[in-house]
């Protein structure tokens, strides 16, 4: 029997929530991580016969990252035929140009790197190690951003973290021959992150108008249909062939 175990970070809202809700009807076991629990997701998974475990960890905190990696992967069921890890949790981090990123922003910069980069490296490493000898189909999807591939003034921290995710994915692909890995830009999505972007000060983020316009013109992707498209992509036979990819390249 086909048995899929899926792990999704940042499952409490936005894209991660939409991915987790759809995986609750596709996977045999769903493991989610976010600071907020979601009872409705738990009920949905139970109704679908999907075993669901939620870990309330703050992935911007190094101790929580270690606890998550150990807690999830030391007890991972070795009998699945497919393992999926979706590193989706992310933050914009502190926004502002060089004059603003001073000593008082140090902690915020470190937390953004912990969440957007360090948690991905540590969770992926533990996942690859735990699945190495299973003989299963092993897939890692890192949610990156166009911001990691094209610079935006004021987004030095965000762009740098997403570029790091892209390069880490390339390195992990070289190392882990038993797995397929992709770093995927999802496009502009109608989530809380975009609300936060629209509330930025244009002095800190000069490209603000572009995002306001996209919202006004209803050009943002909705999380649910986008999640469906991303999961079709993740389950496809070609997944992993293009390790730095963009979902907007697909119909
Ligand atoms: N929205 C866009 O237009 C867009 C564009 C390109 C790329 N992306 C990327 O897509 C991914 C999802 O973005 P989104 O727009 O859905 O974001 P969102 O609406 O802000 O949701 C972020 C998710 O990450 C979790 N999260 C945030 N901080 C966390 C922490 N410290 N520890 C654990 N979990 C944490 C949140 O859960 P809790 O708060 O409950 O912890 C939430 O579930 C991110 O990686 C983002 O960079 C988004």
Describe it.
Strands 3-2-1-4-5-6-7 form a seven-stranded parallel sheet, sandwiched between helices. The protein starts with a strand and ends in a 5-residue tail after the last strand. The longest helix has 26 residues, at 106-131. It has helices at residues 14-23, 39-47, 62-73, 106-131, 156-175, 192-198, 208-216, 223-235; strands at 4-9, 29-34, 51-56, 82-87, 137-143, 179-185, 244-246. The mean pLDDT is 97. It is globular, with a radius of gyration of 18 Å. It is α/β, with parallel strands linked by helices and 251 residues long. The protein has one domain (4-189, 222-246): Rossmann fold. Bound molecules: NADP nicotinamide-adenine-dinucleotide phosphate (NAP). Residues 10-16, 34-36, 58-60, 88-91, 115, 143, 145, 186, 188-189, 191-194 line the site of NADP nicotinamide-adenine-dinucleotide phosphate. NADP nicotinamide-adenine-dinucleotide phosphate (NAP) binds next to helix 1 and helix 6.
Indicate the CATH class: Alpha Beta
Hetero groups in this structure are: NADP nicotinamide-adenine-dinucleotide phosphate
Average pLDDT reading: 97
Biggest beta sheet summary: 7 strands, parallel
CATH architecture tag: 3-Layer(aba) Sandwich
Low-confidence stretches: none
């Amino acid at each position: 029997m086909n048995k899929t175990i899926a792990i999704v970070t940042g499952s409490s809202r936005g894209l991660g929530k939409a991915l987790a809700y759809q995986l609750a009807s596709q996977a045999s076991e769903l493991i989610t991580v976010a600071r907020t629990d979601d009872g409705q997701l738990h009920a949905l998974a139970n109704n679908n016969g999907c075993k669901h475990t939620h870990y309330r960890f703050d992935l911007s905190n190094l101790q929580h990252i270690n606890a998550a990696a150990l807690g999830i992967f030391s007890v991972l069921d070795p009998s699945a035929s497919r393992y999926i890890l979706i590193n989706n949790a992310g933050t914009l981090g502190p926004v502002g140009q060089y004059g603003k990123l001073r000593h008082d922003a140090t902690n915020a910069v470190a937390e953004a790197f912990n969440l957007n980069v360090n948690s991905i490296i540590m969770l992926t490493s533990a996942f690859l190690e735990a699945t190495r000898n299973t003989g299963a189909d092993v897939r890692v999807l890192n949610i990156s951003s166009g911001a990691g591939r094209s610079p935006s003034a004021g987004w030095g921290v965000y762009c740098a973290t997403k570029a790091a995710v892209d390069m880490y994915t390339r390195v992990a692909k070289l190392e882990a021959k038993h797995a397929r890995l992709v770093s995927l830009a999802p496009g502009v999505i109608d989530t809380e992150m975009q609300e936060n972007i629209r509330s930025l000060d244009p002095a800190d983020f000069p490209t603000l108008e572009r995002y306001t316009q996209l919202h006004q013109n209803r050009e943002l992707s909705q999380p649910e249909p986008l999640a469906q498209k991303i999961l079709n992509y993740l389950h496809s036979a070609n997944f992993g062939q293009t390790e730095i990819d963009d979902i907007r390249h697909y119909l």
